[in-house]
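Late entry, written up from scratch paper. The run itself happened at the end of the previous shift, but nothing got recorded in the book at the time, so transcribing now.
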Amino acid sequence: MRKFIQVAKERLLPVFDISPEVLTHTQALDLKTERLLPESEWSWSNWQDEETLTEYIARGLEILKAVGIMANGVTSGCDFGREIEGLYVRAMLIAQKEVNNIPLTWYFLHEEPERRHWSVNPSVQYLDREKAEAVVSIVSGCREYFFFESRGWDKATPENISKATDKYLTADGEAGRIAKLFNDRSCIVFHSHFQRLYGADDRYGFMILKEVLHRIDQVLGDRVIWMAPSALARYWATMKAYEVVTEPSQGQMRLQFRSPFDCPGFTIKIVLSEKVEISRISADGRELRRIPVSDSCLSSESWNQIGNEIFVCFNMRKNSVINVEF
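Output as recorded:
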């Protein structure tokens, strides 16, 4: 166990968020007696009050904190909290503030693998601008094809792996759920249970995952940005919470932002009434780099212009100022 925790902290934590899947993912636990109850955790959760849920979630956070892992979100086992999601969200925030002093948190509960002609994006379930608090639901847009497509395989042939990966993204990037989400300008979130990637008897899911990642790299390249759930939650909460006042003047325009949250790499679009060539843009006194329009995407602290539209990527602070000079 110590070795496993060490690997998680040294190799996973720098690039992934680690969260508790509440406590057991099987039967509910009586916190006083520490004995399992004769009811599933997700069924039990749906008739609890806010105080009980807070204590239960806090225990999961405390276990990880005790081994040096600060969990900034929560994974919902099966339908944990679905029928009382409002209470669940408030309990989650209270638990995070009590255990980790975190006022902006996220959780996994929902998936939308079939939604069409509409984006599948995170959902801000709670927001208090004055207290700078938020809870964001991170929604998976994909079915768990790593498992469902590999059931019944005798062995992982290249043909099997390719066919299963096509459910996510074809080799030419023209089809698959990830292609659909990308074309709909959605956040692209997909998920899997660990044991379905790296099971006791086979590694089929892991092989499919490797091919999915290879195709994303080959087909989409730098047109996508990899983000941990906490970073995506922060971005989405900031997007829903910020306010801006525009102050035009001779030869320049000043944008004064007010946001409850800091957010690195925040991107805005400014639409001018007519095309005017921009000479310089600064954020909080720092000049931003102009990026050629031919580049796939902006990087932090940069901008570009397409016609009368200006795209600016900057590190949002709670009182950021953008100056646009003509």
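The chain has a mean pLDDT of 92.
(Scratch paper discarded after transcription.)
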